[in-house]
Amino acid sequence: MLELLIAGAAVRILGVDFTSAPRARKPITAARCTLASEALTLEAIELLPDFECFERFLRRPGPWTGGFDFPFGLPRELVRDLGWPRAWRELVGLCAALPRAEWRGMLERYRASRPPGRKYAHRATDIPAGSSSPMKLVNPPVALMFHAGVPRLAAAGVHLPGLAGGDPGRVALEAYPGMLARSITREPYKSDTAAKQTRARAGARRAILAALARGAHPLRLRLRTTAALARAMREDPAGDLLDAALCAVQAGWAARRPNYGLPARVPRPEGWIVTAQGLYSRRGQR
């Protein structure tokens, strides 16, 4: 496990930018923060290059509340059509037992069976959040992120409000950094493609960081950090470091609200993206 700059206070808030294929050049990225009053202090960003590191990360003792950038559930329509269980743990167990190739093939066949214009089933939360269907296999591959991430949350025994009980000191919430970023600017701010890693995108990252520092966004939480970490987030063209921080801001907002700001009844087995309260519009990319 690699680590970027640490300042040693107790960790309470986590933000995780996830990838379904972690490696040294594209690790899972985790922001560690503390929350006080209306300010969230970003103390460290950890780079987790493989799933073993991620699994150990999930098992760290609490108390902590974390925002994780991958879907925690599947659309009810998909689950109904395939005759799968609606109970979350049973559904996750069934999906986890499928090899990745079989999981991918099943979704491709299901999508091919649907009419034009309705190839992808969506969850209720995807509409206000502007997020992609958990069925998508590319651009972004959130179906693979679900398949890789959610079984590990279940195995780690964390608490998932509205979906599954677990250790109340380790609370995992579904986050979506693009939703918060779009509330600040509609300009693209990241890309994994070198040709698209432009000055304009770097400028958008600067604008997002400046708004976070002022609390000038719908969640109103101010993000504080060191100059070195702020520079690392500005200079990361893939946006992974900034996305981890955005997830932490969403988790920090949720940690101060009854039921983490989630609906009174979270749709099962779909889950809900924290802060998706209709403040944002237009479907985007995760």
Describe what you observe in this structure:
The structure is a single chain. With about 290 residues, the protein is α/β, with parallel strands linked by helices. It has one domain. Helices cover about 35% and strands about 15% of the residues. It has 10 helices and 8 strands. Strands 1, 2, 3, 4, 5, 6, 7 and 8 form an 8-stranded mixed β-sheet that branches. Strand 3 and strand 4 form a beta hairpin. Helix 3 crosses helix 6 and helix 8 packs antiparallel against helix 9. The protein is globular and about 50 Å long. The N terminus and C terminus are likely disordered.
Keywords:
8 strands, alpha/beta, 10 helices, eight-stranded mixed β-sheet, 286 residues
The dominant shape is globular
- Separation, N- and C-terminal Cα atoms: 25 Å
Summarize model confidence as the mean pLDDT. 92
Which class best fits the helix and strand makeup? alpha/beta
Strand content: 15-25%
Count of structural domains: 1
Number of helices: 10
pLDDT below 50 for ≥5 consecutive residues: which ranges? 1-10, 278-285
Number of strands: 8
Quick one: biggest sheet? 8 strands, mixed
Radius of gyration: 18 Å
Percent in helix: 25-40%
Order of helices and strands: EEEEHEHHHHHEEHHEHH
